[in-house]
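Known limitations

Structure tokens in this collection are predictions and should be treated as such. Users comparing against experimental data should check residue numbering before alignment. To illustrate the layout, the record for M23 family metallopeptidase is reproduced below. The input appears on top and the generated tokens appear beneath it.
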Amino acid sequence: MFEIQFPPIITSVILKNRYKTIACAVLAMFSTHTFSADPLPNRPAFKLPFPCGAQIELKTYQGHGPDDKKIDMYRMGMFTGSPITASADGLVHQAFYPGGIEIRHGNGWFTTYMHMSSHVPVGSNVKQGDVVGYMGDVGSPGIPHLHYEQLYAPGLNDAGSQHIVNPVLQGEWLYMVPNSPLVRTSANCPNTTPPPPPTGNKYWVDTWGDANGRSSPGGTVTGTLYKGTSYVYCKVWGPKVQNATGAQWNHWWLKTDLDVGPTNQWVSAFMLSRWGNDQAKDNNGVVIPNCP
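Generated tokens:
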């Protein structure tokens, strides 16, 4: 006589026939579960570490160690260069190879982000949704993706691989299975009242940081467009703006009215938080038209 044990979340599957019980429990392991009570205490309300509305494919593979807990994330429609955002508020307390950081969220909770081409420095205090880096292929040549983990180490200021737990993202408990990818939409959205629909020739966009406004594309600095949601009118091709490593760039410049400074100025589309290299779209994915 032997006893089969399943994860606690699976034991809620109960049928009178013991063979059906086992079959249903095994099938449940290949799915996700939404619950009202988290099996672990004080877990932050973690969200997918990508900008609001991004479509993300979640995968694992045999030998991922542990296969069911570690997630490789791929942004659909954006092969590389996607902004990576904090799953929850916290402190970046560690950086490591390959292209990784760990964020300490308090109450024993941590998240790990790896394979980024660049990232914020250790000591950065971040809010949920803040950009903490950019998806790349550091340590995984030719396979840009984000490796993501949730860790629980109560009473400790650091977490190791022994502390990895099954993730909960956007209220959904995930038990990852090799060759069974999931697709989810990021709800890592600004916690603010959305702006009214654009009128006329205005297009709403999100920027990941304060942007210099310029008199012409690449011209003299005339003011500032604050981080957040703003409108733009149109775009023109201009001088290339890129990050320190050259992994992210954009040639498009957007005409807008600055928060500090005059109207009808220019900011680089490099500052857009939702799109990649040489893309200039609004928050709905509409390509911003060329300026007349």
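For this record: Residues 1-30 have pLDDT under 50 and may be disordered. The helical segments are 18-28. Please report discrepancies through the issue tracker.
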